[in-house]
Amino acid sequence: MEIQLSGLVKSYQSEGRTVRALDGIDLHIPANQIFTLLGPSGCGKTTLLRCIVGLETPDEGEIRIGDQIVWSHSKRISVPPEKRGLGMVFQTYAIWPHMSVFDNVAYPLQVRGTDRATTRNKVRQALQFVQLENLENRPATRLSGGQQQRVALARALVAEPKVILFDEPLSNLDAKLREETRKILRRFLIELGITAVYVTHDRVEALALSDSIAVLNGGRIIERGAPQKIYFNADHRFVADFIGRANLIAATVLQQDPGFTTVQCALGTLRCQKRDFAVGAEVTLCIRPEFLLLSQQADAQETNSPAVAQDHTDNIIEGRIESLDFVGEVYEAEVRVADQLLLARVDPTVQVSQGDTVRFLLAPEHGLLVMD
Ligand code: ATP
After folding, report:
1. Fewest CB within a 10 Å sphere: which of 10, 90, 307, 327?
2. Do 201 and 257 sit in the same domain of this protein?
3. Are residue 141 and residue 203 in the same domain, yes or no?
4. What are the backbone angles phi and psi of residue 81, rounded to the nearest 5°?
């Protein structure tokens, strides 16, 4: 079921000043997608989720879930949380320690007065779905963190919600369990074909889990799109910087050609991905470290290397290695180019040392130009 948010505003009074937690949010969340709200601490993610679920009352705007307006300032509509047909999974799991797995999951049905046979069937189905059917009699506290989070998911599912909302559900798990649970969760949600709205400040989680991501800052949506679009083709500097590691370099647009945009920056004159900026515009060049990958030893003096000969549009970036750190699958290098320090990657098979002069080839499509 789709969700439409229009002109949502929410302010709080805090220590004598007004905090605008939501500053005019317009957002369409398509049906049956995993849609993530991503942003730094305090950007308004949780407030937005709580407004959708009905635990928080906005000051202005409208919220529609499917065909139903559940909240509208101008139309004076306010549907209570329990009538919005939503399920919610919290960071803290919020499962009851004194109850068994079965009783935890059965709780929403018992509150509704569902008969015992139906409750039993639905709870068993939900537990089967999250692969906990063998643990139904176990006290909920005698489960791992990942299993407890699956109990919380089963409890949200058993009520057959139209939409499930997740508020940082994996942040209490350790890194390995978090990754495993994230994969299981994505599989469950795809199988269910349900609309899921997911809040996180973890960019890797957002990229791996989502069909779409909206990046928030200061109570506003800065940009939204598929994970690949947000990572490789962001429009804004804030988004490019937040979603992954990036070299961000001030640049001026020099020239527009059919296939690329040429800029002047501290690295020299570079051909970049085509972006529709005016000549003379001040922009930011974003280069991800993985696109500065040294995978063969380049002799700085030899200008006619095969890679250059193959493609004359590639940029050549030459610099001196200032530091080299082994981080597992690659070395991470800091490379000095004029007064700019670039973060780059070096394949472990390449023999280079600190102080060496190296050369990278940067294809224009990997030089992303973004606005502030
Ligand atoms: P985090 O990732 O840290 O949970 P968030 O993006 O979810 O952050 P919110 O919790 O939505 O951010 O908060 C948005 C802003 O509103 C913050 O500046 C926060 O301090 C403020 N805020 C949220 N709830 C209240 C409240 N009940 N009273 C006062 N200010 C609040």
Report:
1. 327
2. no
3. yes
4. -50, -45
